[in-house]
Specification:
about 550 residues, 22-stranded antiparallel barrel, 3 helices, about 55% strand, globular
């Protein structure tokens, strides 16, 4: 759930760049930020990123904001200024795709022409006490040769931020409808022929108290309730998962020395197991030392009690943290703790300049809630990889808690006419097992995923852009009925776009997909893959 909370941020109100990319608006490889020793739901403004009420939170009371205001609170807490601002933008995207294989992983090659129409709206209402922002769209897909039935695929993001009592009480909420693949081993073309996409619905409610008593002292008391409707990829059953997180924290920010006292409770449950899948209780004491303005060192000690499938061990936790900001453009944060599942860590590095963006993350933690919908970059950073610029790990859910190891790297170089971006990801999820555990979880959900993407944008003129993106991914089962099951795919896409008017953009492109999988036959098979051409038009009202 730390991962899920890390994804909490105000949505930047920019519309999708078209159906080609909207259908790949899947989560990047999720890495929790501040999963240990601090409140993880508090986005921190990346160095070099201008802070605004819409995108930034106050830096917190510590030297680097170890208790930071969630982005919603930051937006709602903005000082009263101009009258409330409202912005609504409607758009409609249409695209025609001709593919020589509308079902590339079924072993039966079926050509088809796909018509996609997607109306969308982006909205924002900003006032002194309430900020509401988000977007919504519905993709209508029609297969003219009837290789698949016509369908509607909704997607939505809504964020609410409210200030109930000045400098004390807040309420945040968000709602999501985002398509995800019902089978992580399925072939994943990047556009309308992704016929195995299914909508996933989630929401979160977060009342909390947060107050800064003076320059050094602050407190936080927060409750986060999350609810999700997902499809179990093994049983194909629709399930409801719930999470409840509670935190109480007090911090004395370091001028030379400081401390933080933190108490957390976390519970996960679902309607499949008819009970809690994971429950933890944690108490921590952080001692922080600031030897120089750019550096804070911390050590932590505490206790935690864990309930996992009827096993309830109590353990001592301990570890340390380094936060370093050598300049306004760079930020490094590394947290390591000894936990009930072994050593856990969370490392984040970010660098932003006018021409270069670099992000590096690595984490080891526990969750059964799938991959969050946030970027792998630190909260507040803009991803250097555009939506649709890579094949991202499939969002998986398990009936039990899993140990998740993940790593991600992103880089982008920006010139006057050229932009090059790279994305690499790794994710390994295995059922959590502890010493003496009597109930052995199903290892069929265990997977290892790798992905990489390299893209190039070139401005042919002030109104015309050429884009070339190549990417690849591999998923492999690590246990149970899926031991040895795998799917490997590579794709290349070439696309040109031209702005025809202030309201209209035209796009033409082609893609090639190759697939190798034993997903259905348990025998290595080179599938037919896919070759497709497409043309699209976007109109903004």
């Amino acid at each position: 759930m730390n991962d899920v909370r890390a994804s909490r941020r105000i949505l930047r109100p920019t519309g999708p760049t078209g159906p080609a990319r909207a259908l790949l608006a899947a989560p990047l490889l999720g890495c929790a930020f501040g999963a240990w020793g601090q409140y993880a739901g508090a986005p921190v403004v990346a160095p070099g990123t201008p802070g605004t009420a819409a995108t930034a939170a106050p830096a917190g009371t510590g030297a680097f904001g170890s208790i930071s205001a969630p982005s919603a609170a930051a937006a709602a807490s903005a000082p009263a200024g101009p009258p409330p601002a409202t912005r609504v933008q409607f758009a409609i995207d249409s695209r025609l795709v001709h593919t020589d294989n509308a079902t590339p992983d079924l072993g039966v090659k079926q050509s088809d022409t796909v018509l996609e129409v997607q109306p969308s709206v982006v909205f924002e209402r900003r006032g002194p006490r309430i900020t509401l922002s988000g977007n919504a769209a519905v993709s209508g897909l029609s297969y003219l040769n009837d290789s698949q039935p016509a369908r509607l695929l909704p997607r939505a993001r809504v964020d609410l931020a409210s200030k109930l009592v000045e400098d004390w009480a807040y309420f945040d909420a968000w709602y999501r409808i985002d398509p995800t693949f019902d089978d992580p081993y399925a072939t994943r073309p990047e556009a309308a022929t992704s016929y195995k996409l299914e909508p996933r619905r989630r929401y979160e409610l977060s009342p909390y108290l947060m107050h800064r008593f003076n320059e050094l002292d602050s407190m936080l008391a927060r409750v986060d309730y999350t609810h999700a409707r997902i499809t179990d990829f093994l049983t194909k059953q629709t399930r409801t998962t719930k999470g409840l997180d509670k935190i109480v924290s007090y911090e004395r920010a370091p001028r030379s020395f400081g401390l933080q006292i933190e108490i957390k409770a976390h519970d996960e449950s679902d309607d499949f197991t008819q009970g809690q899948t994971l429950s933890t209780r944690e108490a921590r004491l952080w001692l922080n030392w600031q030897p120089q303005p750019q550096l804070v060192l911390g050590i932590v000690g505490g206790r935690e009690k864990t309930s996992l499938l009827a096993d309830t061990p109590t353990d001592t936790l301990y570890g340390g943290r380094v936060t370093w900001r050598p300049d306004e453009r760079s930020n490094l944060r590394v947290t390591v703790e000894h936990r009930y599942f072994g050593n856990g860590w969370d490392a984040v590095y970010a660098h932003n300049s006018a021409t270069t963006t670099i992000g590096l993350q690595a984490s080891r933690t526990v969750s059964s809630q799938g991959i969050p919908d946030n970027s792998v970059l630190p909260p507040g950073s803009a991803s250097p990889v555009p939506v649709g610029g890579g094949i991202n790990p499939a969002a998986l859910y398990s009936v039990v808690a899993q140990l998740r190891e993940s790593a991600g790297f992103q880089a982008a170089l920006q010139g006057r006419r050229n932009r090059i971006y790279l994305q690499v990801g790794y994710l390994k999820q295995q059922a959590l097992q502890m010493a003496g555990q009597t109930n052995i979880p199903d290892p069929s959900y265990d997977t290892e995923q790798k992905s990489a993407s390299l893209g190039w944008d070139y401005k042919l003129g002030p109104l015309t852009t050429l884009t070339v993106i190549g990417d690849g991914s591999r998923i492999e089962g690590l246990g149970g009925t899926n031991l040895g099951r795998y799917t490997t795919q590579y794709s290349l896409r070439v696309e040109g776009s031209r702005t025809l008017s202030p309201h209209t953009t035209a796009t033409v492109g082609a893609r090639r997909l190759t697939v190798k999988s034993n997903s259905t036959t348990l025998t290595s098979v080179d599938l037919d893959g896919e070759t497709a051409i497409y043309a699209g038009l976007r109109y903004k009202f």
